[in-house]
Amino acid sequence: MYTYDIFAATPCCQKRLTCKHCRRAVVDITRGLPYYSQYSRMILCPFCKANDYHFIRPLPETFSVQEAAGSICNSN
């Protein structure tokens, strides 16, 4: 089964639009890309020239998961 980051379809901040290699902005958030499907394509970084899937990131790199104080599955 695949995990798909639905939040990549509409970037929330400039950090989500950075190059995986040099960490500089590949796309300006004020302009964005015309179609959400373009965020899942390979794009050439204008600075370091890395051609990569810059906007597809592993979930742990994008979000932090914190365990709740009380567990709803507590058997006690």
Give a count of the beta strands, DSSP E runs of length 2 or more.
2
Note the main sheet.
Answer: 2 strands, antiparallel
Helix- and strand-based class?
little secondary structure
Question: Biggest sheet, strands in spatial order?
Answer: 1-2
Give the % helix: under 10%
pLDDT < 50 runs, ≥5 residues: none
Taken from the alpha-carbon principal axes, the silhouette is globular
**Rg on CA atoms, Å:** 16 Å
Query: What order do the SSEs take from the amino end to the carboxyl end, as H and E?
Result: EEH
Compute the average pLDDT.
81
First-to-last CA distance: 33 Å
Please supply descriptive tags for the structure shown above.
single chain; 1 helix; Headcase middle domain-containing protein; little secondary structure
Description:
InterPro entries: Headcase, Headcase_mid. The protein is low in regular secondary structure and 76 residues long. It contains one helix and two strands. It has a two-stranded antiparallel ribbon. Strand 1 (43-44) and strand 2 form a beta hairpin. The relative contact order is 0.21.
Please give the structural blueprint:
Layout: E1 43-44, E2 51-52, H1 59-62
Antiparallel strand pairs: 1-2
In short:
With 76 residues, the chain is low in regular secondary structure. The chain contains one helix and two strands, in the order ββα. It starts with 42 loop residues before the first strand and ends in a 14-residue tail after the last helix.
